[in-house]
Amino acid sequence: MVILLTVLAYFAALLAYSRLVTRRTDNDTFFRGNRQSPWYLVAFGMVGASISGITFVSVPGMVTQTDMTYLQMCLGFVGGYAVVAFGLLPLYYRLRLTTIYAWLDRRLGPRSYRTGASFFLLSKMTGAAVRFYVVCFILHRYVLQPLGVPFAVTAVGMVALIWLYTRRGGIRTLVWTDTLQTLCMLTALALIILHVTAELHLSLPQAAAAVASDSHSRVFEWSNWVSRQNFWKQLLSGVFVTIVMTGLDQDMMQKNLTCKTLRDAQKDMCCYGLAFVPVNLLFLSLGVLLMMLAHRQGIALPAAGDELLPLFAATGRLGTAVTVLFTIGVLAAAFSSADSALTALTTSFCVDLARRPDDERLRRRVHATMAVAFALLICGFRAVNSTSVLDAIYILCSYTYGPLLGLFAYGLLTRQPVADRRVPWICVASPLLCLALDTLTAATTGYRFGYELLMLNGALTATLLYLSRPTAAPARVL
């Protein structure tokens, strides 16, 4: 009941705050925030939007199986954000784009444009559903399931709450609400760490020393080239995952494009990009501390790493205060990523596919339809999930974001034309070929591709575009 009351109180505060900061709105407000967002608010809010509820739940539990090797990928994130800030943002600002996929229309052609936008819709809808599944799962398992409430009702209810406070102001509302939610999330994380160290009877310096000396604090994996945790695989995957899931993702770029100037947008991206390493270090350190606490109290570690933090925080083992803090942290992280995803999906459909950016009635209908589809996918993911949620997201993005990476790479790195009518077929064939290659490799050698599948998928897409290019037609050069 404590969790349910916290959810209701948090949402009431969020709805009141969103109405306070957003009054008169139109499509320009919904899609671009009138390009008046202060860069420091965007930067701070993007920390919560980029982390999501997945990080809050999954990352502490990752130490049970892979130690702190996830930090290798976080180091790659920093390099990826630099590429986006100084490579892609100048292009987007120079062309004054509402959606970043309009660049594909100018450089490659209309079918490439629609294909890129379609793959974004598929990728973002799937990835956001996986992320938001976490908060729905926790609320259902620990609160509503004992009351006999079906999971579908939980999922629909949570999505409806997001739809309610984003339906008017869109991206302008999110710039402000994400700032509030990031503050709530980081505060909850810090206070939970303080509670856990107190349970271990350690001071903060003692807790830091204990984490550093623990066997699970291993960060770098240099020797095993086959392992998914190999340093170079993780580092390069982090770079390319960031380029694709931020620089080629309308959801992540939409807020950056609301800044007043290019310089402001670059400052905000560099700031929140650098914040990823220390924030994820805190989450991983929390995981090590929870393992110590479980050992001290004689509690068996859960089979799934995603359940490590909920095992202590959602069940009242650390007291009611931690349960409330945990709920607020998960809600803040999950809502700040899901609300921006819903807004970006609506924007891309109206602008890229429907080509009706000024139709407010269409925007409202699409926004509601996207919310319904979002809820259905969450229910579907519950039926098939069998792996770590964070791992599932990166595997899914390898297949669905790979064609986007190939399209943008081909357009940016070459001056060659493209056979525009063949682009949809190539972008469908490339993930299927990658899936077949992964299956064949696993069957013959036992090796399974990890996050590097994204790079392979993008490279294959770009190669097929090059091989099928028309030799006579001139390229579109911007």
TrEMBL record:
Location, primary (coarse class): membrane
Q: Which family does it belong to?
A: Belongs to the sodium:solute symporter (SSF) (TC 2.A.21) family.
Question: One cellular component GO annotation, for this chain's record?
Answer: plasma membrane
Provide the transmembrane region boundaries: 39-63, 70-93, 147-166, 269-294, 314-335, 366-386, 392-413, 425-443
What name appears for this protein in its UniProt entry?
Answer: Na+/proline symporter
Name the Gene Ontology biological process terms: sodium ion transport
User: What Gene Ontology terms describe what this protein does at the molecular function level?
Assistant: symporter activity
Pfam families listed in its UniProt record: SSF
Q: Where in the cell is it found?
A: Cell membrane
Annotated membrane topology is: Multi-pass membrane protein
Q: In terms of domain of life, where is this protein from?
A: Bacteria
Keywords assigned: Cell membrane, Ion transport, Membrane, Sodium, Sodium transport, Transmembrane, Transmembrane helix, Transport
Q: Which InterPro entries match?
A: Na/Glc_symporter_sf (IPR038377), Na/solute_symporter (IPR001734), Sodium:Solute_Symporter_SSF (IPR051163)
